[in-house]
Amino acid sequence: xxxxxxxxxxxxxxxxxxxRYRVEPGERVSLATIDPDETEHYRKKKDVAKELEKQRRRxxxxxxxxxxxxxxxxxxxxxAMDTGGKxxxxxxxxxxxxPQGCRVSSFKRPSxxxxxxxxxxxxxxxxxxxxxxxxxxxxxxxxxxxxxVKGLVPExxxxxxxxxxxxxxxxxxxxxITVLKFFLHISRDEQKRRLQxxxxxxxxxxxxxxxxxxxxxxxxxxxxxFEDVLSNCSTEHATWYIVPANKKWYRNLVIARTIAxxxxxxxxxxxxxxxxxxxxxxxx
Length: 284
Ligand code: AMP
Ligand code: MG
Prior knowledge:
It is built from 10 helices and 7 strands. By secondary structure, the protein is an alpha/beta fold.
């Protein structure tokens, strides 16, 4: 029995009555041992509706404090295999969050200007300011994922990047920006279903890229690259969470809950009001 009890493969330690998907610093991750179909005791979308709404409201309330306090920030990194659900997560978890305090940055193939800088440049520029939540839809991790799998730089260059990334995230966290990272874990079969549904559904076809089929052939290489990312870059400053993501509704719940808990741990406060406000009368 582990310290928190109830340990089995896929669902690791239970705290607060729900599974822990956090990767401990130094832990060697094997994705094959983590079940992407995990849903705790929930069976269908309806079962999590109330709980998801509760977590969204927690996020909204805590974000208002984070914004007002204007001291600390939160950077949320989303990474996944193609069709893993990064866009859906943003849509469903952040609906209702005040757009003024929140910014989504999506990273594609670097532009000519971006390629002319050090690889972290474009990410650092998009890091959230104090009081803000920044969401990275893809991130600096692409530079040890697609870049590695496609051999876009030599191995000695990408190998060094784990350390550069850890240093970058440590610097952010020491300066008040908490870094929270989610890997949305889907199975190979689930990716096939989702690609097929993009083809079959006229409203989703725009999302289909024949490049996705080519990338799918590199499934094993990507899984390996993700395992190295998760094993090398979950630190005390910037934690990785592996989220079972075959069921979209469960994925949304886990991510919303983890963000709400992280914001609660940051514990932002409204700044103190000016003194003597009780005596003020607003003139006509
Ligand atoms: P999507 O997110 O589907 O719009 O696709 C964006 C594409 O940009 C993906 O194929 C990524 O692999 C690619 N991409 C993102 N960052 C990088 C990078 N640093 N180097 C090369 N390709 C990248
Ligand atoms: Mg795509």
